[in-house]
C-alpha cells in the first residue's frame, strides 16, 4: 500500500459505497462474522469490494474493484496470529484513482478501513494492478469475481425448504461485520473458491460466502 504521509489538513473528504463479498474456508455460516473463532481454528479466503459510488476529494472512484486474499489463525476480532494479505487493485484505475484507493484501503485516512486495518493487523505479501472481473445479480441470487489465472470466487445465495421463493437469508447487526456497523449481510454458499498467488493456494467449494453492503466516509 502507499506510504504517502497524510495530515488532517491535507486529507480530503471521501466516501465509498457498494458491494462486498467473501468466500472462505469456514462452514456456513462463517463464525467470524459473529466475532467467533473460525470453524477450523484458522481461515483463509477471498474478499472483494465493488465501489458503486465513490470519491476521494474530486477524484471519482465509481465502478472500481479491489480484491484481497487473506489468512489468519485465531479470532480476527480478538487474539489472532499469522495474519497475511495480498491486494489486487482494478487495473482500469488511472494514477489518481490508484493513489486514492491505496490511501483509503490502507487505513491512512480513517473511516472503517482505518479501524479494520488496526483490528486485522495483516502483514502484506504483495500488491498489484490487475483485471478484476466482478459480477452480482440484482436480486442477490449469486455473485462472483475473478482475476484471470490467479483467483476465482463464485457463490449462490443460501436457500432451503422453508425459504420463500426469491427471498434471501439475511442478518443485521452482525457482531463481527467485516464492512462495519449498520450493514445487511446476505448468506450464500461458494460454488468456486480458488486462489494461487502470493503464497495463497487453495481450491474448494461448498463453504461459506456472504454479501454485505458497505458505506464508508472519512476522514472522521
Protein traits:
single chain, 220 residues, mainly beta, 2 helices, 49% strand, globular
Describe this structure in words.
The chain has 220 residues and is mainly β. 10% of the residues lie in helices and 49% in strands. The protein has helices at 95-105, 111-120, and strands spanning 14-24, 42-56, 59-60, 65-74, 80-90, 123-130, 133-136, 142-147, 151-157, 170-172, 184-197, 200-204, 208-218. Strands 1, 2, 3, 4, 5, 6, 7, 8, 9, 10, 11, 12 and 13 form a 13-stranded mixed beta sheet that branches. The longest helix has 11 residues, at 95-105. The mean pLDDT is 95.
Question: pLDDT average, as an integer?
Answer: 95
Determine the strand fraction and express it as a percent band: over 45%
The biggest sheet, with number of strands, parallel, antiparallel or mixed sense and barrel status, is: 13 strands, mixed
Determine the fraction of residues in helical runs and give it as a percent range: under 10%
Q: What is the C-alpha radius of gyration, as a whole number of Å?
A: 17 Å
Order of helices and strands: EEEEEHHEEEEEEEE
Please report the distance between the alpha carbons of the first and last residues: 21 Å
Task: Provide a count of the helices.
Answer: 2
Structural class estimated from helices and strands: mainly beta
> How many strands in all?
13
Q: Categorize the overall geometry.
A: globular
Low-confidence stretches: none
Amino acid at each position: 500500500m502507499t506510504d504517502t504521509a497524510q495530515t488532517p489538513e491535507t486529507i480530503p473528504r471521501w466516501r465509498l459505497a457498494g458491494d462486498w463479498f467473501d468466500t472462505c474456508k469456514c462452514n456456513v455460516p462463517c463464525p467470524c462474522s459473529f466475532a467467533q473463532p473460525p470453524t477450523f481454528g484458522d481461515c483463509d479466503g477471498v474478499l472483494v469490494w465493488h465501489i458503486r459510488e465513490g470519491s476521494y476529494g474530486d477524484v471519482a472512484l465509481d465502478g472500481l474493484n479491489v480484491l484481497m486474499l487473506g489468512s489468519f489463525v485465531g479470532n480476527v476480532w480478538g487474539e489472532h496470529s499469522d495474519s497475511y494479505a495480498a491486494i489486487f487493485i482494478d487495473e482500469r484505475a488511472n494514477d489518481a484513482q490508484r493513489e486514492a484507493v491505496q490511501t483509503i484501503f490502507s487505513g491512512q485516512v480513517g473511516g472503517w478501513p482505518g479501524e479494520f486495518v488496526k483490528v486485522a493487523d495483516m502483514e502484506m505479501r504483495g500488491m498489484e494492478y490487475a483485471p478484476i472481473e466482478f459480477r452480482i445479480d440484482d436480486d442477490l441470487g449469486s455473485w462472483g469475481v475473478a482475476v484471470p489465472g490467479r483467483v476465482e470466487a463464485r457463490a449462490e445465495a443460501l436457500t432451503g425448504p422453508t425459504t420463500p421463493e426469491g427471498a434471501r437469508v439475511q442478518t443485521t447487526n452482525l457482531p463481527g461485520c467485516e464492512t462495519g456497523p449498520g450493514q445487511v449481510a446476505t448468506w450464500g454458499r461458494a460454488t468456486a473458491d480458488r486462489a494461487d498467488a502470493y503464497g495463497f493456494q487453495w481450491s474448494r467449494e461448498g463453504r461459506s460466502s456472504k454479501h454485505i453492503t458497505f458505506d464508508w466516509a472519512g476522514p472522521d
